[in-house]
Amino acid sequence: MSFFLIDKIDGDNLFFEGQTAVHLNRSLRKKIGDEIIATDGKGNIFKGLITEIKKDLVVAEIVSGSEVVQDMKISVACSLLKKDSRFENFVEKATELGIDTIVPLVCKHSIKHTIKNDRLEKIIISAAQQSMNANHPKILEVHSFIDFISNPPEKYDEKYIGYAPDRRINKSLEELYNGGSSVCVIIGPEGDFSQEELKLAIETGWIPVSIGEQRLRTETAAMMAVQILKTTFRIKSRLK
Fold first, then answer.
1. Do the Cβ atoms of 185 and 172 come closer than 8 Å?
2. Are 142 and 79 in contact (CB under 8 A)?
3. Is 108 in contact with 145 (CB distance < 8 Å)?
4. Contacts of 11 (CB under 8 A, 6+ apart)
5. Predicted structure pTM score
6. How many other C-beta atoms are found inside a 10 Å radius of the C-beta of residue 224?
């Protein structure tokens, strides 16, 4: 079973258009009267019965609805990578894990400076449907490192930057994360952050942390950060 992304809600009806409609109609061979589970991508889940099927339009009548409330919001500002496929892999897996916001970042040592947001949106929709995630992550426009740390697009309870040249000294993300419901982690490029970037980040309140004992690729570190935060949040919530 998968969640299907709703294009429009009008009264008691759900409308599915474009590729979603084609998928329901041709690939899944849905018929009038069939039940589907759908989401608006904002945490609302609906059960519906299909009432109309056309080539590029499927309409379903709402039978019931519920809301999935997010206990925490995780944002990751991740440097763009030389190969788009590696950044896309991060976006796909982070969506499955339940991230809230993804910020493509350009650092001093970043090789790539642009990315196709429309393609990332399609990856997010596909991954969210497959993982039955009712909260689809937001993918923001590309930010420069300096602009992002100086003027973040959102307010965070806790702010971290993944940087650990000496893992014997730097504390881990698990150790330092206090359980805040809104948290952001910055992950650097293949060439790591420059000393100037790290200095400026610390001066503006970002805390350097280790993401793991091994040296990780950028996209792996970004995915690890999401999982570490979600797991640590659950543990700390139980202890409160």
1. no
2. no
3. yes
4. none
5. 0.86
6. 18
Nearest residue to 108 via CA among 45, 166, 188 = 188
Q: What is the dihedral of CA 103, 104, 110, 111, to 10 degrees?
A: 170
Dig out the tokens for 115 from the structure. 């990315």
In the chain, the domains with their CATH numbers are 4-67 (2.40.240.20), 73-239 (3.40.1280.10)
Instruction: For residues 51 and 122, give the distance between their C-alpha atoms in angstroms, rounded to a whole number.
Output: 26
Tens of pLDDT along the chain (240 residues)? 678 999 999 999 999 998 889 989 888 899 999 999 999 998 899 999 999 999 889 999 999 999 887 789 999 999 999 999 999 999 999 999 999 999 999 999 999 999 999 999 999 999 998 888 899 999 999 999 999 999 999 999 999 999 866 555 578 999 999 998 899 999 999 889 999 999 999 999 999 999 977 888 999 999 999 999 999 998 877 766
Give dist(CA 32, CA 35) in Å, integer. Answer: 9
Name the amino acid, one letter, at 8. Answer: K
